[in-house]
Each structure stands twice: as C-alpha cells, then as structure tokens.
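In the current project phase, our protein records have gained a structure token line. A sample record follows, to show the layout:
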Amino acid sequence: MMKTATDQLITAYLDSPLGSIELTMQSGYLNGLNFLDEPVKEAIPQPLEEAAEQLRRYFAGTLKQFNLPIRPEGTPFQLQVWEQLITIPYGEIMTYGEIAARFGMRNGARAVGLANGANPISIIVPCHRVIGAGGKLTGYGGGLWRKQWLLKLEKDHSPEGLFR
C-alpha cells in the first residue's frame, strides 16, 4: 500500500513552562507528546497548530479538557487504561489501585502503573492524575517535578482543588 502525505509523521516542538515538548501526528491523529531534556527551538507545522494552542491554554489554566483527535499505540490493556485516564476530571486524582478496581483487578495496581507509564501522549491523556496509594506521588516519564507542577496547576485552577 502506498503512503500518502497525510500518513507521514509530522513533528512539532513547543516551548512550555515544563521545557520543550515534542508533538507527533500521523494520519491526522496526535500520537505522541514527549518532554525533551534539552531546549529545542519552537516549530509548529500547521497540522499541529491546534494541539499547540490547546496546550498553551491548558498551561495558562484556561483549558480544562482537550478536544483533539488522538491515536495512541499500545497493547489492548494499555489502551483500556489510557481510556480510563481520560475519564479522570481536571483537578482530580485517582490511585493506580482505584483504576485497577475498575477492571476487577484486585491486585492490579502494578499492571496499571506499567500501562500508565507507557502512555505516549502525556498531559492530553492525563497520566499525571494517577498517584500511588496513600497519596504518594510515584513515577512520571517526564520526571516527578513535572508531575508535581501539573498537579499544582490543576489544583490552582480548579474550584474543588486536588486531594479533596
């Protein structure tokens, strides 16, 4: 099958309060959001302008829910976990165990944690809203400091706040 121009991987680089972010899109769907350790000059191709704009509004505290076409790639279980992450409202948190319980997995917190950690579209698929038992902040692919920053952003812009 011949690839068309819309099948090509499109990459954007966005400046953010958390450093440079790389966005990727293929076939009209966002499929990656990654934090970069080194600064990269901002470059936003037209197909990713809406994603960049929504992220800017999110960082400003004025966007509480993303409306973007996404297509993360993962195992069936990972996809199920990521679907659950999208249901966690802005400014709220869940534990890995609570998500596992939604699947009827009594001891599934670790499996949920592994799937959460493999999320390729962080922020938009809000894996930062998942914490360990007892309120403990645990791993985040972008670094725990970024997870703390994102949770604080949402707490500061949410009438209910986190941890209530």
